[in-house]
Design brief:
There is one protein chain. The protein is of the alpha/beta class. It is about 50% helix and about 10% strand. It contains 21 helices and 10 strands. The chain is globular and about 55 Å long.
């Protein structure tokens, strides 16, 4: 068995993701594919369009063999922590041969040169980064400039660093490479050039629309308006979700909850959350009195240094009361479990290989595994359960769906794979 790993969100699964799977098979000769996928909330700091089981089902129907959940504590984080958590999971199963990802660059050597500097951050690089941050630039811009300065000072050829590191998929790819280096992993990273519209593009400009454009069109004009942008199985799955719940999810559905939290929490309370630098807690508290619309509030709080996605993640951390200490504890420990969301026949073969090669707990039925985990991993799993409950709360159902993690079984397709 050759096992290729993908790190995904499938929010929702579209034609670009299908190309990712095809390229993975062609570039690696992999016989089996495992996807580590964000659960109820995604890296940008917002609820996924449809629930994690629906998205996992889309993946299985389009060529993935096994989907496991990327825990909330790893998924709703900076690109660095998102990559660290997901690569740790692929490493912990002791079965992954390749990690394949798309990038704007498409050049693994180009990305690896940058990752080699960032993985261990030499003293001069740290000094340069601090200087650029002190100028009021965002972290991503400061890092790009520090890399450029460091490379010039050391006679290192990095290409157009500023251009490379400002692209979303390049950034994630560099973080994957950086994490694999720190883990001293034997997983072989492979990239290919991403096709279609840019990640954040709202307009549809090519045959492969961005997930951002697809979500926007569905929210504004209904699922029917996106029929040509999705594989039929993805369209059918989203259609069924809307038929059942009345709508898709989005950050705007949490207005009342976010307003309540910002009303009752002091600036000191807000400072307890991850990534809240000194002074930002006062800015959040002061501006929360001006607008009751969380989307407007996020725009008002954001600056050159504090991006909108960073503010969104902070608000979602507040939503589940995830504080700095819990995050630091989780990332200082190794993953203790993988949670299966969907599988086909080949997926069961992957599970059997993992059982042979690793002692990691494989969770199919939640109630059977809760007491087998250590304190840290149990806390991580409990946070996923809370995040799922809050996910359905955002759908504003007459009778909220509670405890779905205990009620829902993984999607199994024995006719696929």
């Amino acid at each position: 068995m050759k096992l290729a790993g993908l790190i995904t969100e499938y929010n929702p699964f579209h034609f670009g993701h299908r190309v990712h799977i095809e390229n993975t098979k062609n570039l690696t000769g992999a016989s089996h594919i495992i996807a580590v996928m964000s659960g109820s909330f995604v890296q940008r700091g917002e609820p996924a369009l449809v629930d994690k089981w629906t998205r996992a089902e889309m993946a299985i129907k389009n060529g993935v063999d096994l989907v496991v959940e990327l825990p909330f504590i790893y998924s709703v984080q900076t690109a660095e922590l998102f990559a660290s958590g997901s690569t740790k999971i692929l490493e912990s199963i002791n079965s992954t041969d390749y990690l394949v990802f798309g990038s704007e660059s498409g050049n693994i050597d180009e990305l690896d040169s940058i990752a080699s500097i960032l993985a261990f951050e030499p003293p001069l690089f740290k000094k340069l980064l601090k200087e650029h941050l002190n100028y009021g630039n965002s972290f991503s811009v400061s890092r790009s400039l520090a890399l450029k300065d460091y490379a010039e000072a050391n006679g290192i050829e990095l290409g157009d660093t500023l251009s490379i590191i400002k692209e979303s998929n390049n950034i994630l790819g560099i973080e994957y490479l950086k994490s694999l280096k720190r883990l001293e992993s034997s997983i072989i990273p492979i990239t290919f050039q991403r096709l279609g519209d840019k990640y954040s593009e709202l307009e549809v400009k090519s045959e492969i629309a961005s997930a951002t454009a697809i979500r926007h069109r569905i929210k504004e004009n209904g699922i029917e308006s996106a029929i040509e942008l999705l594989p039929q199985s993805s369209y059918d799955s989203i259609f069924s979700f809307i038929k059942k719940y009345g709508k898709v999810n989005g950050l705007g559905n949490y207005s009342q909850i976010i307003n309540y939290l910002l009303c009752v929490k002091s600036a000191t309370d807000i400072s307890d959350y991850f990534d809240v630098e000194i002074g930002l807690e006062n800015r959040i508290k002061d501006l929360s009195r001006i607008s009751s619309d969380p989307l407007e509030l996020i725009k008002a709080i954001s600056t050159k240094r504090y991006t909108e996605t960073r503010i969104q993640r902070m608000l979602i951390h507040m939503l589940v009361d995830l504080k700095k200490e819990a995050i630091l504890d989780a990332f200082s420990n190794e993953p203790g479990y993988i949670r299966v969301l969907a599988s086909n026949k080949k997926g069961f073969e992957i599970i059997n290989k993992i059982k042979e090669n690793s002692e990691i707990e494989i969770i199919n039925k939640l109630s059977d595994s809760m007491n087998k985990l250590n304190k840290t991993n149990k806390s991580i799993l409990l946070l996923d359960i809370l995040a799922t409950d809050l996910y359905y709360l955002g759908l504003d159902l007459i009778k909220p769906e509670i405890g779905m993690d205990f009620k829902k079984s993984p999607y199994i397709n024995i006719h696929n794979g």
